[in-house]
TrEMBL record:
Keyword field contains Transferase: no
Native source species: Tupaia chinensis
Pfam families in the cross-refs: Cyt-b5
InterPro entries given in the database record: Cyt_B5-like_heme/steroid-bd, Cyt_B5-like_heme/steroid_sf, Cytochrome_b5
PANTHER family cross-referenced by the UniProt entry: CYTOCHROME B5, CYTOCHROME B5 TYPE B
Protein name per UniProt: Cytochrome b5 type B
Keyword Calcium applies: no
Principal location: membrane
One Gene Ontology cellular component: mitochondrial outer membrane
Length: 146
């Protein structure tokens, strides 16, 4: 496992609280066939190879997500709390801290906030220009009539 960095004992199948290995996303990405399938859910790496045929949501959906961060798809489906418990048995380690993105989106949150309020930056100059236009028309017509 070239891209794997051990953060502790490296024991597989233990809970997240135990010392666990870190995996680079590149490494996870390589495990994306029906022979071996790993997924990332909320920064944790799961080897779900043996679960593939048993998945009630069909194996195709897991194969589509193979080797990637499947957090969003996993949440979209609304998996039960029992399923979340079940995840623990497939847990093999954590995503390496350098590969972790902020939860809730791949974008830089500061950019997202900027985008949400970017209308704010161009609407005022436009409204201001229109108002100035009206004022200009108003005063020029006033001065012509007097
Ligand atoms: C390691 C990851 C996963 C495990 C252990 C798992 C497990 C399960 C289990 C036990 C169920 C039935 C009970 C429930 O809804 O909670 C289920 C349903 C389902 N799963 Fe997953 N799942 C995983 C990942 C995914 C992913 C990434 C998708 C992607 C879309 C997915 C799609 C579905 C769908 C569509 C159903 C509903 C099936 C139905 O109601 O007919 N699952 N999964």
């Amino acid at each position: 496992m070239a891209a794997m960095e051990a953060s502790g004992s490296g024991g597989k199948g233990q809970g997240p609280e135990a010392s666990v290995p870190y995996f680079r996303l590149e490494e996870v990405g390589k495990r994306s066939s029906s022979k071996e399938i790993w997924l990332v859910i909320h920064g944790r790496v799961y080897d779900i190879t043996r679960f593939l045929n048993e998945h009630p949501g069909e194996e195709e959906v897991l194969l589509e997500q193979a080797g990637t961060d499947a957090s969003e798809s996993f949440e979209d489906v609304g998996h039960s709390s029992d399923t979340r418990e079940m995840l623990k048995q497939y847990y093999i380690g954590d995503v390496h801290p350098s590969d972790l993105k902020p939860e809730g989106g791949s974008k830089d949150p500061s950019k997202e906030n900027w985008c949400k309020s970017c209308w704010f930056y161009w609407i005022f100059p436009i409204v201001g220009a229109v108002l100035l236009g009206f004022l200009y028309c108003y005063y020029t017509s006033e001065s012509k009539s007097s």
